[in-house]
Amino acid sequence: MPQREVDEMVTGLQTRLLTELEPVVEANLERHLGVAKPWAPHDYVPWSRGRDFAFLGGEDWKPEDSPLDPIAQAALVVNLLTEDNLPSYHREIATRFGRDGAWGTWVGQWTAEEGRHSIALRDYLVVTRGVDPANLEAMRMAHTVAGYDSGDKTPLEALAYVSFQELATRISHRNTGKASGCPIADQLLARVALDENLHMVFYRNLMAAAFDIEPDAAMQAICKEIVGFAMPGMGMEGFAQNAIAIAKAGIYDLRIHHDDVLQPILRFWRVFERGDIGPEGEQARETLARFLAAVDERAKFYEEKAAMRAAARV
Fold it and tell me: Any binding-site annotation on 303?
C-alpha cells in the first residue's frame, strides 16, 4: 500500500478516535471538576521570610542563604523548569486534541491548573532564597525559548505518553518535597502532586476507553511511548547530571519508573491480560514485555551498585 494511503488511514483512525472519545472526555471532565479542589499558590509561600535584593537596596543571593541541600536544590529546579514550559505543553495538547467541545474545555482546564505549579514553586524558591534567582531566571529563559516539541505523536500516542508522564511528575514532586527537609516545601509539593494525580487519572481513563475502541492501535501506541519515554524537561541545561543526582537520592530512579509508574498503569489497562488483541497488537505487546524485562534488569544493576557504594561507606 502506498505511504500516502497508509498516512490517510492513520489520520482517519485518529480523527474517528477523537470523535468517539468525546463523550468519555465529557464524563471524565465532569468527574474531574467534581473532585478537584481549588487552591491558591500564595497560600503555600512563607512570605515573612522574604527580603529585598540589591536592586531595591537589599542584598543579592549568596549560597549560604539557601536552607536546601544541593540535591533538593537540583530537584526543585528541574521540577520548576519543567513546569515552566507550560506554553509548549498547551500547544502540544491543543494541537493533538483540538480546542472545540469537551476536548477544548479540558485543554483549557488542564492548562489553568498546571499554571499554578510554576507560580507556587518559583515564589517559594525566591522568597526562601532556596536557589540563585538570577541563575534560575536565566535558565527559565533558555528553557522556555527552546520550548518543547514531542515530535509527530498521534493523539493516541499523546494520550499514552501523558498517562505515564503525569504519574512520573506526581511522584517526582512528592519525593522532592519529602527530600527537601523543609515542611513548607513538602506541603507545597504534596499539593502540586495532587493536581498531577488527577490529571493522570483523566488521561489514564481516556486511554482505557481508547483500548476498547481500537485495541491494536492502543497497544502499539503504548509500546512506542514506553520504549521511547523521556521526561519533558530533558532538554534543559544540566538535566542529565541533575537526573543522575536525583536518581542516586532515590527521588526518581529507574526502579521507581518501572515499579511505580509503568506497572500500575499497565495493570489498570490490563495490557498483559487482554484477549482482544490482533497480530499487530500482539507483536507490540511482546516487544513491550521484552523491554520491561530489560528495564527491570537495568534497575537491579543500579540497585546493586548503590548497595556496593553504601557498603563501602560503612
Answer: no
**Is position 83 annotated in a ligand binding site?**
yes
166 is in an annotated binding site: yes
Which pTM does this prediction carry?
Answer: 0.93
189 within 8 A of 89, measured Cβ to Cβ: no
Please choose, from the candidates 169, 167, 274, 166, the residue with its C-alpha nearest in 3D space to the C-alpha of residue 214: 274
Instruction: Flag whether 143 is marked binding.
Output: no
Residues sharing a CB contact under 8 Å with residue 131, sequence separation 6 or more, in sequence order? 61, 66, 68, 73, 76, 77, 125
Q: Where are the domains of the chain?
A: 13-37+68-312
Task: Flag whether 304 is marked binding.
Answer: no
pLDDT digits (tens, 9 = 90+) for 219-271: 999 999 999 999 988 888 889 999 999 999 999 999 999 999 999 999 999 99
258 carries a ligand binding annotation: no
CATH code given to domain 13-37+68-312:
1.10.620.20
Residue with cell 504519574: 167
Q: Mind listing the pLDDT tens digit for each residue in 29-73?
A: 999 999 999 999 999 999 999 999 999 999 999 999 999 999 999
